[in-house]
Amino acid sequence: LVFLPPYSPEFNLIEMAFAKVKSVLRRHFNGESHGVSNISDACYTIALDDAVEYFREAGYM
Q1: Would you place residue 33 in the very low, low, confident or very high pLDDT band (cuts 50, 70, 90)?
Q2: Would you report the helix, strand and coil content of the chain in percent, each value rounded to 5?
Q3: Helix or strand run (H / E) with residue 35
Q4: Helix (H, G, I), strand (E, B) or coil at 22
Q5: What molecular function terms (GO) are annotated for this protein (predicted)?
Q6: Which of the ends of the chain has fewer CB neighbours closer than 10 A, N or C?
Q7: Torsion of CA 22, 24, 29, 30, to 10 degrees
Q8: Is the pLDDT of residue 38 over 80?
Q9: What is the structure's pLDDT at 53?
C-alpha cells in the first residue's frame, strides 16, 4: 500500500479525466443550459487511449 501526498493531482487519475471533461464543456457547451446532458456527452469524449495515457503519465504503467 502506497499513500499519496495530501495534494497530488498529477497522481490522481480522476483529476486528469475531469480536466478533459471541463475543457470539452468550455469549448463546446458554453452558455447552453442542458446541464446533465452536456456533462454526459463530455464524459463520453474520454477514450480508452486517454485513460491509458493518464495511467502512463501518473507512472502507474
Answers
A1: low
A2: 55, 0, 45
A3: helix 35-43
A4: helix
A5: nucleic acid binding
A6: N
A7: 60
A8: yes
A9: 94
Using the structure block, give the residue that is written with the C-alpha cell 464543456: 25
**How far does CA 8 lie from the centroid of its chain?**
15
Q: Which residues contact 46 (CB under 8 A, 6 or more apart)?
A: 17, 20, 21
The set of cell numbers assigned to 9 is 493531482
Q: Is 2 exposed, middle or buried (0-12, 13-18, 19+ CB in 10 A)?
A: exposed
For residue 55, give the C-alpha cell: 495511467
C-alpha cell recorded at residue 20: 478533459
